[in-house]
Structures are given as C-alpha cells and as structure tokens.
Specification:
By secondary structure, the protein is mostly beta strands. It has a single domain (about 15-260), classed as Jelly Rolls. It is about 5% helix and about 45% strand. It is built from 2 helices and 19 strands. Strands 1, 2, 4, 5, 7, 15, 16, 17 and 19 form a 9-stranded antiparallel β-sheet that branches. The longest helix has 6 residues, at about 5-10.
Length: about 260
C-alpha cells in the first residue's frame, strides 16, 4: 500500500514507516512510469513542466530548463527515513544545446542536477549535492559541491574546478560555443550520516567512461536545535538554476540505500 506524506499531515500524525529498504529507479515502463511529466507518475509530487520521463531507449528522467527552483518529491511507501543516514548513487548526463555559448558569464554560477534530502516538517532544511557550471574562468568550467541548510544557516564545501573536456564535452575555441553538447555518463555518489556533532556528508563525481573521479567534497554540519535529526526526511530533485541556461540533465538511474542505526 502506498501513502502520500500530505495524508499523514492532514491527520496530524507522522508516518510510522521509515526507509528500511533500498529504492532504485531506471525510469522505465516496467517500473510503472509513463512518458511525460514525472509528477503524473504515482508516488511523485511537486512542480509540473520541469521533470519529464523519457521511455525511449533504456529510459531516463529529463530535467529541463524552466522557471527557477522547481522540485519533484518521491512519496512512495517507506520513502521517509529517520535512521542514521543514507547513501545515494545517481548516473546522469548533461546535454547542452549545440551552438550555444559555453561561457555563462563572469559573475554567474549555474547549479545543475541537484539531489536533496529535505526535512519534511520544515522543507527549508535540506542536505544534498550537485554539479555547477562556473563563470569567470573561461568557457566550459565546472565544479562540484555539497550544500545544506540546518540551524537556519547555509553550509557548503566546493571541490576544485575542472574542465568541460573532463566531462566529455567540447566547444569551439574560436566561438566559445558548444560543438558536442552531450557529456559522458557521470556518476554522483553521496552519503549523509548522523554523527555526534551533527550530520556528516561526503560526495564524489566520476566520469564512468574514463573511470576518473573528477571531484570530492566532505563536511560536517552542526544540528544544535535537533530539527533535522528529529524530523523525518525525504528525497527530492531540485532543478535549481538550470532555467537560465541551455542545458538539460538526463538522469539514467538513481539508487538510495538506508544506513541503519547501530
């Protein structure tokens, strides 16, 4: 049986179930997905016109440029976790529009393909990771980061910058425009675990075609008021700032595994 989190809130109670088993999606018809808007699929809720299921080939979720800050939440059975933490793996590709500029401007930074775990009671609190295209260092530069918000404060750890070529992307040196806008298959691995001083996060980004780990990030964030620790948490995609730039994020597979308490 499947429940929506809003149903529990309307009854004034919290869900009794927590994430006790791995959930994994390849976004295929066999998994019950239908082509079109993700939030039309059972167990998903949130913003429309940003997250689309593509059933062609092996299946994927396409996060398209639309208005800023759109989210899609997974609300399936046992999707809420209150245990010590979790591990996430996501395989995805970046698809830029060929012929468009690979330089986003000196003062810009575009967050692409964010995965987040939010406090379901106060959704302003979250922890997650993502990839950023950065400006000011020439066309086609990127970095990788962990972001969270706890205790009313933002915290982040940014990895060193790397180049578009590291992602399998290429652009014309003369024009600065993308010539091959599709990246290699990338893998984001993220872990979130409760520790004595708060919450520890680690993340890495790997190019699966070359086998090279491009970036790593890690941080420990205090949770002195206990609001993140004390409330159930759930998974969401966040389109962030990709609305400003000619890029889509194609998610081929995502897997979330709980870390049980000792």
């Amino acid at each position: 049986m499947f429940f929506k989190y809003a149903s529990f809130l309307s009854l004034g109670i919290l869900p009794l179930a927590s994430l006790t088993a791995q959930f994994s999606f390849d976004f295929t018809e066999d998994e019950g997905f239908e082509a079109g808007d993700l939030v039309d699929s059972f167990d998903w809720a949130g913003s429309r016109n940003s997250f689309f299921v593509n059933l062609e080939g092996e299946g994927s979720l396409v996060i398209n440029p639309t208005e800023p800050y759109r989210v899609a939440r997974f609300e399936g059975a046992d999707s809420f976790f209150e245990d010590a933490g979790l591990e996430l793996s996501m395989r995805f590709r970046l698809v830029f529009e060929e012929g468009k500029s690979a330089d986003i401007g000196e003062n810009n930074a575009a967050a692409l393909g964010l995965v987040q775990f939010e406090n379901l009671i106060d959704t302003r609190e979250f922890a997650g990771a993502g990839l950023r295209q950065t400006g000011g260092a020439g066309p086609g530069t990127f970095n990788f980061a962990i972001w969270n918000r706890m205790d009313g404060k933002n915290a982040s750890d940014f990895a060193s910058m790397f180049l578009a070529s590291d992602l399998g992307l290429s652009y014309d040196d003369a024009t600065g425009n993308w010539t091959d806008g599709q990246s290699d298959a990338l893998e984001l691995v993220y872990s979130l675990s409760e520790v004595e001083d708060g919450w520890a996060e680690t993340a890495s980004l790997k190019n699966t075609a070359t086998g090279v780990i491009l970036a790593k990030a890690a941080q420990v964030t205090p949770d002195s008021d206990g609001s993140f620790s004390g409330n159930p948490k759930g998974f969401r995609f966040n389109s962030a700032q990709i609305s400003k730039f000619p890029v889509a994020v194609h998610v081929d597979k995502i897997t979330v595994t709980p870390i049980a308490k000792d």
